[in-house]
Amino acid sequence: MTILSALLASPLGPILIEGDERCLHRIIIGGERGGPEIERVDPASPTGRAAMQLRAYFDGACEMFDLPLAPAATHRGEALRQAIIAIPCGASLSYGEVARLAASSPRAIGQACARNPFPIVVPCHRVLGNGGAIGQYSDGHGVATKLWLLEHERRGGLL
Q1: β-pair partners for 18
Q2: What residue ranges in 32-130 does DSSP mark as E strands?
Q3: Are residues 37 and 80 in the same domain?
């Protein structure tokens, strides 16, 4: 299996996108290493499609991502991922609210967010602490990246 990678310039800095001919493997905000600029990536590949959809997101034109993601390690992990994906663009839910929707625990949601290999696409930045506390963010520049993404969605017409 050949890993295809691309580097997307974004307002958050470079974003590294990695996948193969079937699915995406990971996205790293601030990913400096790896692949060619997106213009040289096959636009029909999962990596190319992710680059185009992320570019549209940053341009304010994309609400939902339609990308083949590498499966989570467990069925439970996949269920937690789907609960996070279901949070609409421009909205946010607490760890507890997402946990109730997924029939899980807030701690499990927090762990799924911390281990999320697909930031932005699996929008863990939309998961907040009780009372709207910002909580943590494990990619890019941490909380500053999470705040930027939330504000981008609120102001950028992505509602």
Answers
A1: 5, 26
A2: 93-94, 127-128
A3: no
pTM for the whole thing? 0.91
Q: How deeply is 75 buried, as exposed, middle or buried, from its count of CB atoms within 10 A (0-12, 13-18, 19+)?
A: exposed
Instruction: Give, as one character, the DSSP assignment of residue 156.
Output: T
Domain that holds residue 23: 4-58
Are 105 and 139 found together in one domain? yes
Q: Is 36 helix (H, G, I), strand (E, B) or coil?
A: coil
Catalytic residue list contains 124: yes
CATH number for 53? 3.30.160.70
CATH number at residue 147: 1.10.10.10
- Looking at the fold, whether 91 and 139 belong to one and the same domain comes out as yes
Give the phi and the psi of residue 22 in degrees, each rounded to 5: -105, -40
Q: Which amino acid is at 30?
A: G
Model confidence pLDDT, tens digit, residues 37-91 = 555 678 899 999 999 999 999 998 767 899 999 999 999 999 999 999 999 998 9
8 Å CB contact between 138 and 1: no
Which one of 23, 89, 113, 124 is the catalytic residue?
124
Whole-number Å distance between alpha carbons of 15 and 11: 10
